[in-house]
Specification:
The structure holds 2 protein chains of 2 kinds. Chain A is 40% helix and 25% strand. Chain A is an alpha+beta fold. Chain A has a 4-stranded antiparallel sheet with strand order 2-1-4-3, with no helix packed on it. By secondary structure, chain B is an alpha+beta fold. Chain B contains 5 helices and 4 strands, in the order H-H-E-E-H-H-H-E-E. Classes of the chains: A alpha+beta, B alpha+beta. Chain A binds chain B through residues 2, 54-55, 58, 61-62, 65-66, 68-69, 71-83, and chain B through 43, 57-65, 67-68, 70-72, 74-75, 77-78, 80-81.
């Protein structure tokens, strides 16, 4: 069982800006949960309508698979530095 | 437990000295070395560093949890065939001979296993690319 990341650090540095963010993304999770529930209900409804098609049968899997991707974002780190620009993002 | 008993029996039978028994007991008590048990890798790392003397100063350091890679591969199975075809065509146009439809979880596990045993180093004129798992 993996838990979703709680915070995100973002650093964008270039000629025009020097942005440093520490975003408590766990605050979004209650909204995401509601959104996921609504999306899943819609996906099941679409599944009933479109089940004869191959992609229709896969619709109810979207929400769990996307949730899985979000949960596994923890510890992802991307750091790109060039002479003029820096981009850094990490999920903790 | 069985090994300890055997060592003590050997001492009792005067087959080994107390010093030797002590050394053997220490070996028996030692935890199994981590090298013998291969730890499953958790992250895929990709680093790009400039070569020494190169004017290029670009650096890339990416750490991707392998669980995220697995979840991503699972997600690709939901891509409709028509969309996957379009992606494959676009990749082919860019010179990448890779098909999304052929991406299977088993293949990924094999790739991760292979990467845990080796590092990919590519050194060109401008920089050095390093791909490995940790």
């Amino acid at each position: 069982m993996s838990y979703p990341p709680l915070t995100m650090r973002l650093h964008i540095l270039n000629d025009n800006s020097n942005l440093r963010f520490w975003i408590p993304i766990f605050l979004l999770y209650p909204f995401l949960l509601v959104l996921a529930l609504v999306a899943e209900i819609l996906a099941i409804a679409a599944f009933i309508l479109f089940w004869p098609w191959d992609w229709g049968r896969k619709l109810p899997l979207f929400v769990p698979y996307i949730s899985r991707v979000i949960c596994n974002l923890r510890n992802l780190e991307i750091d790109i530095q060039s002479r003029w620009e820096t981009f850094f993002v990490s999920f903790k | 437990m069985e090994n300890r008993k055997r060592i003590l029996e050997m001492v009792a039978e005067n087959k080994i000295t107390v010093d030797e028994a002590e050394r053997l007991l220490a070996l028996v008590d030692e935890p199994v070395e981590s090298a013998s048990i291969k730890k499953a890798p958790k992250y895929l790392r990709v680093t790009i560093k400039p070569c020494a003397g190169s004017e290029n100063t670009d650096r890339v350091n990416v750490r991707v949890p392998l669980s995220l890679v697995r979840a991503g591969v699972k997600l690709t199975s939901l891509i409709p065939n028509e969309a996957a075809d379009k992606v494959d065509t676009a990749l082919k146009e860019k010179g990448v001979g890779f098909s999304l439809k052929n991406l299977k979880e088993d293949d990924l596990e094999q790739l991760i296993d292979a990467l845990s045993d080796l590092e990919v180093d590519i050194e060109g004129g401008k920089g050095k690319v390093n791909v490995f798992t940790e």
